[in-house]
TrEMBL record:
InterPro entries: GH, GH26_dom, Glyco_hydro_26. Transmembrane segments: none annotated. This is GH26 domain-containing protein. It comes from the Eukaryota.
Length: 241
């Protein structure tokens, strides 16, 4: 299993156009905890990212799904349960949700995102929020414009699922912020994946710098260039953080 740490960065833009940068790590099956990371870095980070699947998992024989963790099951990725975070601060939780499950008969992705599955996820995350008091951001089925996602390249279906999800999440977690986040290479003027401003709280995007075979500093303009057109076409146009 790959162990890695990614960095989460997002901007909060107020009505007065004052930008606030929020930075946090995303642990992938490492020995790090929120507390150990803060100690290592010498500061308390304001947010941490984790991920979960919808539905939670498939049965061993691949014929059914688990909507929640089975009784007595300990997930190897402890970060999925916000109640495990040991930083002792009010850092927000940035939860990425993937529709990445597949049954033995080939049914997968969006076909498994039922209202029941959404309700179970909302109830589970809502309980975590109530117990911890943390602010919650849900990055729902990101990079949907990528072929590497089971739910990718299905814009009409994707939007219909999003519009089912949004009111359910708001019903069970009224304070949740839903993050719409395509991969950075979304084509200009391609609004086919956009659910509409009434269904999105925060606009995000995935930007990766892998060096392209060269171990060196990232070009200063790389992030700004990569965020276009997503940032101006959606965040700026609809006044969304």
């Amino acid at each position: 299993m790959t162990k890695s740490i990614s960095l989460l960065v997002y901007f909060a833009v107020s009505a007065t156009a004052v930008q606030q940068l929020t930075l946090g790590p995303w642990f992938w099956y490492t020995d790090n905890t929120c507390a150990s990371w803060n100690k290592l870095m010498g500061r308390n980070y304001p947010t941490f990212e984790a991920e979960t699947s919808i539905p939670y998992n498939v049965t061993a024989d691949g014929t059914g799904v688990y909507l929640d963790p089975p009784a007595g099951y300990t997930d190897p990725n402890f970060m999925k349960d916000i109640r495990n975070w040991n930083d002792g601060t009010n850092a927000s939780a940035f939860m990425t949700v993937y529709a990445d499950q597949q049954l033995a008969n080939g049914t997968n992705g969006l076909d498994l995102v039922s209202d029941e599955a959404i309700i179970h996820l909302a109830q589970r995350l809502g309980a975590m929020v109530n117990e911890t008091g943390r602010a919650l951001y849900i990055r729902w089925l990101p990079e949907m414009n990528g072929s590497w996602m089971l739910y990718g390249l299905q814009p009409t279906y994707y939007v219909s699922v999003w519009k089912r999800m949004y009111p359910i999440m708001k019903q069970y977690i009224p304070t949740v912020q839903l993050v719409w986040a395509p991969n950075y290479d979304l084509q200009p003027n391609d609004t086919s994946y956009w659910p509409g401003p009434d269904y999105v709280d925060v606009v995000g995007t995935s930007v990766y710098y892998k060096g392209f075979g060269t171990n060196g500093p990232m070009p200063a303009s790389y992030i700004a260039e990569s965020m276009s057109p997503v940032y101006p076409e959606y965040s700026t146009a609809y006044n969304k953080p």
